[in-house]
Write a structure and sequence with these properties.
The structure is a single chain. The protein has 14 helices and 2 strands; from the N terminus they run H-H-E-E-H-H-H-H-H-H-H-H-H-H-H-H. It has about 300 residues and is mainly α.
Length: about 300
């Protein structure tokens, strides 16, 4: 009897119906629903709603009339649009290389066996935990032309101490870049530090045995070992720099004049200061496409190098 029961169980298992690919895909979608529902509600729907608003004249009282691509024509015939796009790209050129170089240098220092390494690592990472408003207010006081510690320090060192950091167009971008670098360099440092710890120490020992100096060891081992981390860092920093808003809004208000107005602040002023939400939505769509284009170019360049 036991043998017959076991054989019947085997036949039942063998005759279990085969799940079709459609059923498997359906099950996968069911498992993904906890993510897909919030994603659709809080991301896809606002994007689609913004694209719809961009086709209308939309003020504080709601939709007024349909204009089709009229808002987009206004954008591309507005000279300020090209100026603010350049400001955003200019900040990328200033901030991305400096924060990556500083983060790499700090990671190389902290990766050594030095005393208080954990404390130093925490000190550099802590500013990244603060909000952009706190960071901007702190550095606004530091860059104060009359009572700021930075100008006072320059006077002690014998340099000109009457620099108007936030009201002189020749210095204001460097002030914003220094603020952003100090705020974000800890995050860059941590990623590089993780990448450095993934490089086998055997490579350095073998190079040392072969007679390679410290510079040759660094040049031929460290950058190739950090290539993947470097790609992530460059991509992330470019996108983050393009989205510059908080520092400019709090520290300079877009000034002096229009010299620090960026695309994000351009969208903010159009929507929340001028109550032209349809035009602001069109500006958002255009700027999103610009960032996607930059991301595609970057991926193509990295793929071609690989």
């Amino acid at each position: 009897m036991d043998t017959k029961v076991r054989e019947s169980d085997r036949t039942l298992v063998l005759r279990k119906p085969y799940a079709s690919p459609f059923v498997r895909e359906l099950k996968a979608i069911v498992y993904l629903l906890p993510f897909l529902i919030p994603f659709a509600v809080f991301y896809l729907w606002p994007v689609c709603r913004g694209a719809w608003m961009s086709l209308h004249v939309w003020g504080i009282q709601g939709m007024q009339k349909y204009v089709g691509l009229g808002n987009y024509k206004k954008i591309f015939t507005d000279q300020d649009f090209y100026l603010y796009v350049w400001h955003s790209i200019y900040f990328v050129i200033l901030c991305t290389p400096t924060v990556i170089v500083l983060g790499l240098v700090l990671a190389l220092i902290i990766n050594r066996n030095i005393r208080f390494r954990t404390l130093i690592r925490s000190m550099y990472f802590l500013p990244y935990v603060l909000s952009v408003s706190v960071i901007s207010f702190i550095w606004s006081r530091l860059f104060d032309s009359k009572y700021g510690p930075i100008n006072a320090l320059l006077k002690l060192l014998g340099a000109p101490g009457d620099i108007h950091w936030l009201t002189d167009k020749h210095f204001v971008w460097w002030a914003i870049t220094l603020t952003t670098d100090w705020w974000t360099v800890g995050f860059v440092m941590v990623l590089f530090l993780a990448g450095l710890q993934e490089i086998p120490t055997d490579h350095y020992e073998a190079a040392k045995i072969d007679g390679a100096g410290a510079w040759k060891q660094f040049w031929h081992i460290t950058p190739p070992g950090l290539s993947r981390v470097m790609k992530i860092q460059v991509f992330y920093q470019i996108i983050a720099s393009l989205k510059l808003f908080g520092q400019v809004q709090i520290m300079t208000g877009g000034g002096p004049g229009d010299s620090t107005n960026t695309m994000i602040r351009y969208i903010y002023v159009t929507g929340f200061k001028k109550d032209m939400f349809g035009l602001a939505s069109a500006q958002s769509i255009v700027f999103c496409l610009i960032m996607l284009l930059i991301a595609v170019i970057q991926f193509k360049l990295t793929d071609s190098k690989d």
